From TrEMBL:
It comes from Bacillus spongiae. Homotetramer. Forms an RuvA(8)-RuvB(12)-Holliday junction (HJ) complex. HJ DNA is sandwiched between 2 RuvA tetramers; dsDNA enters through RuvA and exits via RuvB. An RuvB hexamer assembles on each DNA strand where it exits the tetramer. Each RuvB hexamer is contacted by two RuvA subunits (via domain III) on 2 adjacent RuvB subunits; this complex drives branch migration. In the full resolvosome a probable DNA-RuvA(4)-RuvB(12)-RuvC(2) complex forms which resolves the HJ. InterPro entries: DNA_helicase_Holl-junc_RuvA_I, Hlx-hairpin-Hlx_DNA-bd_motif, NA-bd_OB-fold, RuvA, RuvA_2-like, RuvA_C, RuvA_C_sf. Has three domains with a flexible linker between the domains II and III and assumes an 'L' shape. Domain III is highly mobile and contacts RuvB. Belongs to the RuvA family. Gene3D superfamilies: 5' to 3' exonuclease, C-terminal subdomain, DNA helicase RuvA subunit, C-terminal domain, Nucleic acid-binding proteins. Residues 152-201 are annotated as: Domain III. NCBIfam families: ruvA (TIGR00084). It holds the Pfam family RuvA_C. This is Holliday junction branch migration complex subunit RuvA.
Length: 201
């Protein structure tokens, strides 16, 4: 229904962002909401996908059209819903995901929350050889952003943990990586990416 929404980033949280346009605030779920932080109170264009089911109507938003197209491709795989597709995109490891699909590397794919062996196999069957038109260059810099260093490192890490929890990772998995994250001096966006890298090892 909506190809994109152009508006001002009014709120960035662990699960979603709010884009205001025409005096309406749109609640938009994103793979890594904190990738929107550099645009706080700025006008941007967000590529959107409206997901409708019996008990829910939700908007999902992406900073690039390629991101959105890959999200839609993932939704077409049996066993992957919007939350699972967001978790895969949030990793920032899109190139690795595509390589895993092309090389039939199920062991890598099952590391994402909600992806078991059956779903990983289905991803390979459904998507192998069909992603080149969507991501011709693998867009390796998908979530690279120049975010100003935050003064409260602990708060940034806590926000990152909340975002990872929202993606479906368990308390046990998150406790395993927290000591390693605590050694880093990062902003929220970077903590999320670092956390996902550790979770995918």
């Amino acid at each position: 229904m909506y190809e994109y929404i152009k508006g001002t980033v009014q709120y960035v949280g662990p699960e979603y962002v709010v884009i205001e346009t025409g005096e309406i605030g749109y609640k938009i779920f994103a793979p890594n909401p904190f990738s929107f932080s550099p645009y706080q109170h700025k006008t941007i264009q967000v590529f959107t996908y409206q997901h409708v089911r019996e008990d829910l109507i939700a908007l999902y938003g992406f900073l690039s059209r390629e991101e959105k197209l890959l999200f839609m491709k993932l939704l077409n795989v049996s066993g992957i819903g919007p939350k699972g597709a967001l978790a895969i995109l949030a990793s920032g490891e899109v190139q690795a995901v595509i390589h895993a699909i092309e090389n039939e590397n199920e062991a890598f794919l099952v590391k994402f929350p909600g992806v078991g062996k059956k779903t990983a196999r289905q991803m390979i069957l459904d998507l192998k050889g069909k992603l080149q038109d969507v991501v011709p260059d693998y867009f390796p810099n998908l979530f690279q952003s120049d975010v100003e260093e935050a003064s409260a490192e602990q708060a940034d890490m806590e926000e990152a943990i909340l975002a990872l929890k929202a993606l479906g990772y368990s308390e046990r998995e998150l406790k395993r990586i927290q000591p390693k994250l605590a050694k880093e001096n990062l902003n929220t966006d970077e903590y999320i990416k670092k956390g996902l890298q550790l979770l995918l090892k």
